Amino acid sequence: MSRMTMSEAIVAAIADAMTADPSVYLMGQDIGVFGGPMQSTKGLWDSFGAQGRVIDAPISEAAMVGTAVGAAMAGSRPIVDLMFAEFLALTMTPLGLEGSAVAFRTRGEVTVPLVVRAKCGVGPHRGHAESCVGMLLAFPGLKVAMPTTPQDAYSLTRAAIRDDNPVVLLEHMSLLHGARAEVDRTLDVRLGAADIRRPGRDLTIAASGLMVQRAVRAAKDLAADGVEAEVVDLRSLAPLDTALVRASAERTGALLVAEESWPGSGPAAALCAALLGDGDRLGFPVRLLQPPPTPVPFAASLESAFVPSVADIADAARALHAPVKGTVTA
Amino acid sequence: MSRMTMSEAIVAAIADAMTADPSVYLMGQDIGVFGGPMQSTKGLWDSFGAQGRVIDAPISEAAMVGTAVGAAMAGSRPIVDLMFAEFLALTMTPLGLEGSAVAFRTRGEVTVPLVVRAKCGVGPHRGHAESCVGMLLAFPGLKVAMPTTPQDAYSLTRAAIRDDNPVVLLEHMSLLHGARAEVDRTLDVRLGAADIRRPGRDLTIAASGLMVQRAVRAAKDLAADGVEAEVVDLRSLAPLDTALVRASAERTGALLVAEESWPGSGPAAALCAALLGDGDRLGFPVRLLQPPPTPVPFAASLESAFVPSVADIADAARALHAPVKGTVTA
Amino acid sequence: MTTTTTTITETGLWQAMVEARAFDQAMCRHNGHWHEARGEEAVFVGAFAELGPDDVVAPHFRGACAVALQRGSSPATLAAGVFGTDASSSGGHWRGDICPAPGPRSVGMFSGSLGTSVAYATGAALHLSRTSPGAVAVCGFGDGTANSGIVAESLNLAAMLGLPVVYVCQDNQYATSLPSAVALAGERVSDRARALGIPATDVDGNDVLAVRDAIGEAVARARAGAGPSFVHALTYRMGGHYMNDPETYRSPEEVAAWAERDPIARLQDQLVARGELTADDATAQVRAADERMEAIVAAAKGASDAALVRATSPYAEDLRSAS
Amino acid sequence: MTTTTTTITETGLWQAMVEARAFDQAMCRHNGHWHEARGEEAVFVGAFAELGPDDVVAPHFRGACAVALQRGSSPATLAAGVFGTDASSSGGHWRGDICPAPGPRSVGMFSGSLGTSVAYATGAALHLSRTSPGAVAVCGFGDGTANSGIVAESLNLAAMLGLPVVYVCQDNQYATSLPSAVALAGERVSDRARALGIPATDVDGNDVLAVRDAIGEAVARARAGAGPSFVHALTYRMGGHYMNDPETYRSPEEVAAWAERDPIARLQDQLVARGELTADDATAQVRAADERMEAIVAAAKGASDAALVRATSPYAEDLRSAS
Ligand SMILES: Cc1ncc(C[n+]2csc(CCOP(=O)(O)OP(=O)(O)O)c2C)c(N)n1
Ligand SMILES: Cc1ncc(C[n+]2csc(CCOP(=O)(O)OP(=O)(O)O)c2C)c(N)n1
Ligand SMILES: [Mg+2]
Ligand SMILES: [Mg+2]
């Protein structure tokens, strides 16, 4: 056990995987002697650079991911550090349309074990906030994970590297260099499993990334009012753990989804579709709290108004909790 | 008035726009003397080729769309014939991330009036079925229209060309060369407005593209059993006309969404999010009928099992209609 | 350095071209969605003939089935893949025409979108360079495909990393209707590789021996660790882009002129002149190949797809546990 | 042919560089997110100096504010755009550092993703060729950006269509930490343009007069309808990639050697030698520019963003009706 930030935990998981498995290599821009954008590969150059396993790439994201798909088919387990998630938009043909389809097309005989790392989210790095997660969810076969704790950062990174499918690891810039916490390197986390970050009985708040942290804070505020919110960290945005969210909301009686991604597409919409689409009526009301359907504005004040705040989450939770439980309001 | 197929109606709308407005030009692969893939630009080369307004492009989709974004900012109203929707995945940075954000970033002072045509859908052309519509819905500012009748094909194409925002026109390959119908060249259709294709009182079936045609056929089958289904043609997938769908479903008491696109992202999920997300309980049950979350399989038998059939729609409608109206089943 | 290279005789090259054309022409008769490769055999047969099982191939889609044949795939399985029927190796999940035998040593198109396979081959070469020194990846792509951005990116990356990959531009002078003389700006597409410091050759793509020699040099360079090479092979698409192509964009005279330069007839004439083949034997072999492929493709066309099972998850683990 | 070209004196070029650096250095002092352009002024000042209002500019992000200054934007508005405060022209919606003055004649980056602006400039040139014969688009991009696929695609398209566009590679020898000598495979990046039949020149990017002349020729060619050109300007990024760049990837000696070749000092020495400027006057002008920009940028930094209004629709019609 040792204490790490999320960023350190991701690097540790990569280092451990590279030590254990020579088929793992890393490609990205400025990941060599520079140590990775925002220190995303700190120390890896010293350990693995001489082996040619930490490859500095030129600005050519489609080829970075495309070569990784080819290398993965041939037998490697590449990790591409794509720097920012908005660059994923340059890679959707090799990553989404094709790489994610190979296992299906070959009925599992040929696989593309590939991890793509991408930083996203509002926060310290002005700009590059877009996660483009809705775009990722549009391609079947692609897994998308988004850790919010150092432990999950370690365990999900390891699970992603071991997975035989392409996995995008979304790394939230407001969380990466947050508080250190103990990381147990033996702990497994399955891709596709959400987690209850805080138990509660009065309503469920489902969230991912930074919104989990804000939901937990909001839950503390709510607790002061006697409202006990259960916070579900989605962790895996594809596949989504609808079962856990549904079970929680059925128990608490209400579901608030707090998301930093755009409405209309992304985990919130996918969750609604999964909850609603079987023709049964939901036993609980659902409220989505998301930014407006616009690009992320630049100004600090606009950016912070754009993304749900702790207060926004707490207010929405109160409003959702207020009606007598079980009443149909429509 | 004259009788046209959908494909002819789209070409007519483009020809009319090019005649009326010299800032409109067309770029695409094989759109010159070849007449366009699947005759998508039939006759335009003869009328406008000599003016340099029908430009045969090399295989470079990102630059086709990228140059169109630049030309549009500078004052043109370009139309890009991208051939197949799966190639949209090559263009998401200039089209989705950037072109669609310019109006927002400049608060409407600079716009990108750009139309991207893309064929999609299961059907005669084996392969190239993917619409990638979920990916399109992930980018705020991008409009997406999908006509299902020659009249809408004409009117929506015209509206798309006149619109100051980037618009993707999804052209379903199973409908493009279908039956001819009268087209009134003076009729306006607003982007963003769904349409009731068939009125009914017992349940609502919302659909787009080929699924509209199948829903209408299913509605005829249902009528034989005394069930009157209302069929809503979404027509505009972004923005979605949630208000019309909601009003229809509130009136009929149930909503079946039949879609050819993948679950988890796309118009069905967006609709669920819009219907569900305000914290009120829905007054009607919702059932989604969609392909499984996989790529489109190749074999004819697998492909037809993949996409909802007329019988699938009718069966789902019957099951949804069966419970006593208004009962909460969960 | 691996020694997986097999040596194929000139008669063997001729036979491979004959077999390729027999399969191709049978498909033209039976499959309305086929992309005819007649006339281009010297490029893809010459380019992939000398590779071993450890080498990675990523052929251009036009001719991809011929490359699979050359590497030992059964024509019946390939044909089933093209039609998407029971006997197909993908269980009907994939278009067997454009990437007929996907595997760790055969990477290709996985949608209908051109260009990416050049990156896949480059990535496979990166894998080979790390794990199997001496092995090489050979990648074919059309003149039209050469313009897509990912090709430029991949070539730069390969040059920068010194990867063991050979790029073969199968220039049949058209991308559907657009002539490569128009679409490929500049004098020679091979200059794009030269600009990146990649050794490049321009060969007569209707001369299988010239293609084989050019590729051989390039492959040897790659095997020796001297990085990527580029071969531009000028050929001609004797048929339409697809079946029923109206071909309004070129003249019958042009087509006729290139028919005179048929790569199979050309090598056959040389072999006959040198006494390595008799005209009668050649005719008999061609007929035998045609009859064999006709029977195989016709049977494949009539085969059932009733027993195909539809996968409902795209994930590797689900697909494995289901099978 | 339009005659919008203005002629700027050599002293004017020097002043433009001084002004550019003054703004840049003030930003370095006040904005932790700034990308310093010190040392590269000769490229972007020289490349965009002679253009008229009908011409389209698409500068590289590093130096983009200087180009906007040159074209008449107010430094106070630009600074507000960089900080995203009330006085910004985008109302805080956009990062004013990388595309400071978007408009029909200034197209640039609209996310943080490099490469696309080369396509936008090419498309603007297509528009100009159809509507304003004689007008030209000039496009700057870094050595790192030159490797992205959309750049290759755009150059090919421009060459094929003979568009009036000038591509300027602002080669400051690094893409963040990756040296262009490593990342740009091949001898000279300009050979990539030559391979496409695009006339190309390599110039000393620390010599503003050489840059201006090379661009001038290229622009004249474009105005005359003779198609695109490419100018490779070799320069050096004297500062870090961004503020607080540890610069572990290069040596202080290298940085010091290039500091000797400062483009402003270089032209200043020439002007002083020729008697067109006195050393005292130069010092005074530099100080005045520095003081002016320091005041403007410091004021902008302290300005409020309280009155910004958040747009909640991305659609042009909604944004118009809202304003
Ligand atoms: C990215 C992409 N753009 C366009 C197409 C449509 N398309 C299919 S084949 C073809 C022509 C390809 O030309 P080339 O690469 O020269 O190969 P050839 O058909 O001549 O063998 C085109 C444009 C495609 N499949 N993929
Ligand atoms: C498509 C893309 N990939 C990566 C980045 C991250 N990035 C920002 S600046 C930069 C270096 C760019 O190098 P160059 O084009 O030479 O410009 P310079 O910074 O040297 O001025 C990189 C890699 C980006 N913004 N866009
Ligand atoms: Mg070709
Ligand atoms: Mg640089």
TrEMBL record, chains A, B:
GO MF, any single term: magnesium ion binding
Residue ranges of every copy of the Transketolase-like pyrimidine-binding domain listed in the record: 4-178
One Pfam family in the UniProt entry: Transketolase_C
Cofactor: thiamine diphosphate
InterPro entries the record matches: THDP-binding, Transketo_C/PFOR_II, Transketolase-like_Pyr-bd, Transketolase_C
Residue intervals passing through the bilayer: none
Keywords: Oxidoreductase, Pyruvate, Thiamine pyrophosphate
Protein EC: 1.2.4.1
UniProt-recorded name of the protein: Pyruvate dehydrogenase E1 component beta subunit
Organism: Nocardioides simplex (Arthrobacter simplex)
Lineage: Bacteria, Bacillati, Actinomycetota, Actinomycetes, Propionibacteriales
From TrEMBL, chains C, D:
Pfam families listed in its UniProt record: E1_dh (PF00676)
Molecular function GO labels: magnesium ion binding; pyruvate dehydrogenase (acetyl-transferring) activity
Sorted UniProt keywords: Oxidoreductase, Thiamine pyrophosphate
GO BP of this protein: pyruvate decarboxylation to acetyl-CoA
Named cofactor requirement(s): thiamine diphosphate
First-tier enzyme category under EC: oxidoreductase
Keyword Membrane among record annotations: no
Protein EC: 1.2.4.-
Key word Oxidoreductase present: yes
Protein name from the UniProt record: Acetoin dehydrogenase E1 component alpha-subunit
Species of the source: Nocardioides simplex (Arthrobacter simplex)
Lineage start: Bacteria, Bacillati, Actinomycetota, Actinomycetes, Propionibacteriales
